[in-house]
From TrEMBL:
Record-level GO BP terms: NAD+ biosynthetic process
Source organism per UniProt: Glycomyces artemisiae
Name recorded for this polypeptide: FAD dependent oxidoreductase
Gene3D superfamilies documented for this protein: FAD/NAD(P)-binding domain (3.50.50.60)
Record GO terms (molecular function): L-aspartate oxidase activity
Any Pfam family: FAD_oxidored
Organism lineage string: Bacteria, Bacillati, Actinomycetota, Actinomycetes, Glycomycetales
InterPro entries, alphabetized: FAD/NAD-bd_sf, NadB
Amino acid sequence: MRRLQTDIAVVGGGLGGVAAALAALRRGRRVVLSEEYPWLGGQLTSQAVPPDEHVWVEQFGITATYRRLREGIRAYYRDAYPLTDAARRDPQLNPGRGRVSRLCHEPRVALAVITKMLAPHLSSGRLTVLQPHVPVAAETVDGLVRSVTLRHQDTGEDTVVEAAFVLDATETGDLLPLTGTAYVTGAEGRGETGEPSAPETADPANMQSIAWCFVFDHVDGDHTIERPADYDHWRSLAPEFWGDAMLSFTAPSPRTLEPETRTFNVNPPYDTVGGKEAHGDDPGDLDLWVFRRIAARETFLPGSLDSDIVLANWPQLDYLGGNVIDTPDRDEHLRAAKAQSRSFVYWLQTEAPRPDGGTGWPGLRLRGDVVGTDDGFAQAPYIRESRRIRAMRTVVEQDVAVAVRGHGRPATFEDSVGVGMYRIDLHPSTGGDNYIDVECAPFEIPLGALVPIETRNLLPAAKNIGTTHITNGAYRLHPVEWNVGESAGELAAFCLDRSLHPGDVLAKPELVRRFQAALTEAGVEIHWPEIIGY
């Protein structure tokens, strides 16, 4: 067993963890950053999901470092890829021309940019990265986390990291139970939160579905995978509210909850399917091929790609069989989620109805090389919901939902440490709920949502802040997670410089204002202009 001492330990190398580390490092602090999977970047890389962002992302509403990440991705394509002249000149280059976002791209490119952003800090020696490591234990005394034990996934070797501050940036809030930090899971009851969309009775096991994504293209030849042994099970699965079997092109519309059949146009000519990128009342997913396409042939010089490259993160992959938090069946549910996705691949290749009246596309080819795996599936499952701290301030539906507030103007907090925007978007859940999709105002991130009610030197740095099951649906997306992590890293450094704890800052308006000034100086937007949500 080895021991490391550092100023700040960031456990979890997803978007929040990377942003937290960068923030602390720019303040001159030493950081140990750990990550479970081979790639840093979480939902953008190891989970392979291109960013879900608001419609003003090119102008405002993100931090300066998140903008550096986005522009770095575009610069990488301009430097390394054979782009067409039009694509190279496009200041808002969207390599995949997908409809979910203004920037759909390959996960490996995001990894390259994240690596570049961290590189000078590795050279300085102030940053230590531990991969692939998971937290297995922690020592907490009188509300202070003294150390965290991280275990190497392959060798089993343990590393004890002693730090003045510990940031939980794991995908499922794994440090919270280890450190004795009070937290909540699943759905709170309406009696507790007063939220119109909350169930009458709390259900800690009722969480948003996870999905195991995969990447594919379509080329000549037969690339059909072996028929999964459990294919018949998944082929017969048909939730009551779904409108058809899960292995189909039908799924509920998030907005109306009515069954809706999507199209699947393989390698369509550009601009023949759909329109501009999705926003407002258009979810953008009516054609599954273009929804999350991450490399479009028309972006590159003729002959560069034999096919578009597509990321599958569709309703048909949502695993409803159980959650992966605080359950002895976690590994079985992870295996089943991947099995469901594998069966959907086989269905696409063999049984899916084609526009020409035939069935199946045997030319669909899994692209493990794009996601860094042997089998074509992402390194990690896509996690939508985490454990959430019992915070000094919990954001509830009444704070941000347009219908409850009576208007769509920005939802403000005096102690704001960042901004975000997304509809309250909950996928079908492990408790049997259909979509919950609620119009949301542009919102701010209150400092109080980052401060645990008891543990004094632990901060959430991902999807584990003080939100509810309902509001997590808006606060869980890529740029918000990055902002949460960045503000957590800044807060830890701010407190270390002044021998304070986060609760001390929150308790004094003058300290809150000084911290907000530090954030603003660092390029973190803490307020919205006067805009209207959707």
